[in-house]
Design brief:
alpha+beta, 10 helices, about 350 residues, about 20% strand, Ribosomal Protein S5, domain 2, globular, 5-stranded antiparallel sheet, 7-stranded mixed sheet, Ubiquitin Conjugating Enzyme
Length: about 350
């Protein structure tokens, strides 16, 4: 990795973006320390658009794209990002449904795969603004008219992990539903496939009251992802984590790599874990990181902790391939599992 070249490319990109967008659209993110985080703020729906759609007493809606520049960008990894879009409807705080954020994330990853090694934030912004105009406006207007937009609820916990306590089946089903993995948990189980052994971090990473713990399991089938998640969520403490982000990577017949991930509301975290598994060339493994938010924003540090706690546990169990300097990673055909 060329650290200095990456730094220069990032600085040049920020200068270019600053020259294109006004200071109220693109600006440093003051919620996080340092100069590695920037925010784009886009109007999604204006007062005039609400009037033209016969919607009364509705404040303008904006979408914020928070970008965190990693040292490995753009040579190895894309920027980390968050997407925030919320509004108030009849006194109720509403957040944009996760499925629409996933559509945006998919568009971003397609751009990164096409331009890997080059700066891509401008392309991301163009794709996002196109999506807002082409689809998102109509989606939100329809949602408001029907008055049934979904809310996003996050449960925080600052306590230390305790011994597992079984949750009820209804609680478990709700947690699985919230994590958008019903396709994993409901998939047919091949005959003879058993729940794999699950390993968790012996010591957590704790930073400013936030706690991070990793869990891994050897797997051979995508079906086992749901089995492992369901088993982990039987622990009430894990089930109440603010986020349970995960990724998996399976080598199938012919060397085809089947991989997938889920953010569980921490946008970019699933991709971070998936990228880690690819970089260390880990195969036939599932990794989840549970985070309990401590009330203090960590900024991009949280992604470092997610990666570090996962890497530590993967290394302890022999999944890290310690390659010699200059050795090239093995090339594989890939396929993405559908959720």
């Amino acid at each position: 990795m060329d650290v200095e070249n990456n730094k220069q490319l990032r600085e040049d990109e920020i200068i270019v973006l600053s020259s294109i967008y006004e200071s109220d659209v693109f600006y440093p993110n003051k919620n996080y320390e340092g100069d590695k985080s920037y925010t784009f703020k886009f109007p999604v729906l204006t007062a005039d658009e609400f009037i033209s759609n016969d919607i009364e007493d509705q404040e303008e809606i904006y979408l914020e794209l928070n970008i965190f520049f990693q040292e490995t960008y753009p040579s190895e990894e894309p920027p980390i990002y968050e997407i925030e879009c919320s509004w108030t409807e009849k006194g109720i705080d509403i957040s944009l449904d996760e499925k629409y954020k996933k559509i945006i994330s998919k568009k971003f990853m397609e751009i990164w795969n096409d331009f890997k090694g080059e700066v891509i934030v401008y392309e991301w912004v163009q794709a996002l603004t196109d999506y807002i105009e082409a689809e998102l406006k109509d989606i939100i207007i329809e949602s408001i008219k029907k008055n049934n937009a979904s809310t996003t609820v996050k449960v925080s916990s600052n306590e230390e992990l305790k011994s597992p306590n079984d949750s009820s089946d209804s609680e478990l089903d709700e947690n699985l539903k919230a994590m958008h993995i019903s396709s994993f948990s409901n998939a047919p189980i091949p005959e003879g496939v058993e729940l794999p052994e699950i390993f968790s971090s012996a010591e957590p990473i704790v930073d400013r009251k936030s706690v991070f713990i990793a869990h891994i399991a050897p797997i051979q089938y995508v079906t086992q992802v749901g089995m492992v998640v369901r088993e982990l969520l039987k622990n009430k403490k894990i089930a109440k984590a603010t986020h349970n982000m995960f990724a998996y990577r399976i080598e199938e017949e012919g060397g085809v790599i089947n991989e997938g991930n889920d953010d569980d509301g921490e946008h970019g975290a699933g991709m971070t874990l998936a990228g880690l598994l690819e970089v260390i060339d880990a195969r036939n493994v599932f990794v989840m990181v549970s985070r309990w938010y401590g009330g203090i924003k960590l900024g991009p540090d949280r992604f470092k902790h997610i990666k570090d706690i996962a890497l530590q546990l993967l290394d302890e169990h022999g999944y890290v391939q310690h390659k010699k300097k200059g050795q090239q990673p093995i090339k594989n055909n890939k396929k993405k599992s559908k959720k």
